[in-house]
Amino acid sequence: MHTVTIVGLGLIGGSAARDLRRENVATSIIGVDQNPAHAGAALALGLVDEVLPLQEAVEKADVVLLAVPVNAIGALLRPVLDLLPEHATLIDFGSTKSALCGQVRQHPKRGQYVAAHPIAGTENSGPAAALEHLYKGKTNIVCEREASSGEALATAMALFEALGLQTVFMDAETHDKQLAYISHLSHVSSFVLSMTVLDAEKAEKDIFALAGSGFASTVRLAKSSPAMWAPIFEQNSAYLGQAIEEYITILKQFQEHLQSGNTAILYQMMEQANKIRPVLEGKAKTPAL
Amino acid sequence: MHTVTIVGLGLIGGSAARDLRRENVATSIIGVDQNPAHAGAALALGLVDEVLPLQEAVEKADVVLLAVPVNAIGALLRPVLDLLPEHATLIDFGSTKSALCGQVRQHPKRGQYVAAHPIAGTENSGPAAALEHLYKGKTNIVCEREASSGEALATAMALFEALGLQTVFMDAETHDKQLAYISHLSHVSSFVLSMTVLDAEKAEKDIFALAGSGFASTVRLAKSSPAMWAPIFEQNSAYLGQAIEEYITILKQFQEHLQSGNTAILYQMMEQANKIRPVLEGKAKTPAL
């Protein structure tokens, strides 16, 4: 892949740019970003060689990587496929997969597209948040593998490998359902925890002086970008709604046992929850753990 | 303080022992633990000089530190005060304060007692989890300061200082209310997140293969000890129940806007939640952040 065009020069696209350059996978990296400040910062940071308008950047590309929020991917997927040179490959890094795959299922160039989702990120955003090795050792999910051509898949796999990703294959519905529980629900619980404590702080001044590392860890994801997450929640509202429902159900059970003084049952619930320990210890992945 | 007796040789008591010894604050440290395995491990690890039965250990002490779960502190507070030598000081490190302070309000030796809560800990427990510098730079809350004698308070402050704690003063009700939001609710949200995803995993095999650092951070507190937390929840059930109620209310709002496709309002809610960022950045305290 001589020329890689990255659309979206934030944490996700910028981090990919850093690694692709270091690994000499791309001889040239073209950036596209509708935010001129981000485009300028990406140039200044050396993430990309040049910034071009979308059409020109796609037409020059061997690989196009879409690293924008999932609503923007939804808006770009068909027009970019339309413009994509015959030999080139289109990859997206969106956190939802079902709606996106559905959009281009009948597209004549569907074979040139690889639907991917690397499970990587931080709560920060923008080109300055881009990190080398963000993807190293992380899981990458490719959906509807059978709809991608062998050539596109081989190109994409070479790029994933250069990033250090470990790729698994899954259908798009299963992806969205599982991510609702293992990722999107964590974000909701964290956003809502933040709102609850910020509300409490209005009445209870200086409450944050009492915050320990446990609160900081639990609420960390509440720093995440609404521009990224609102479209993910929207696209995955059915599965996420189900996950939130189940979460509320268990919270209410906890609440009932708390209020009726049923400490023995609270104890059992926590013992149940403790079973997450070996799961997490098998997966120590990032410094953020 | 020549002899410090530490009752409870787990993470909290063991970590205090390490620091008090290093700082030469205690010439002798006596341990008490009803679990013989913990007592043996604490001796083997050099956390304490000797292990004695409670009565003997209290009678020999210049300072007694209660570092056991809050239900056990509740059971020990009066008998230990009864046994406490006239010159000695009793300190507890329990995470709730109102019920404990209430128990001894009329005790003739109330002045010898200092009710404290250092906001420090990890999700691990037992003597092997004890860490040097666990308390360094952390906030310590002393409740009902005016009920402690000047002498007891001075002794306690010297001990807190040796641990590197920064002490603030607060009434016990305010403490319990604020901790319900800033600490206990985080634990509940994390325990329940763990239970929800473990439940989902029964239907969706291999879901944990998709876990990223965000999930790990949000669910970390679900590894916490039920033996420690069940009594905290029980003692703080009124304020914690109120906090959980408010958390569920905001979750339901989020859920409603999600299901009615009100993405603009979800966006606003997340922007609201983002206000936690400067709060957390002002308080980067531990490597676990």
Automatic annotation (TrEMBL), chains A, B:
GO molecular-function annotation terms? NAD+ binding; prephenate dehydrogenase (NAD+) activity; prephenate dehydrogenase (NADP+) activity
Any matching Pfam family? PDH_C
Can you say what this protein is called?
Prephenate dehydrogenase
Domain (Prephenate/arogenate dehydrogenase): give its ranges: 2-288
**Source species, domain of life:** Bacteria
Q: What class of enzyme is it?
A: oxidoreductase
What GO biological process terms are annotated to this protein in UniProt? Answer: tyrosine biosynthetic process
Stated EC number for the protein is 1.3.1.12
Alphabetically ordered keywords of this record: Oxidoreductase
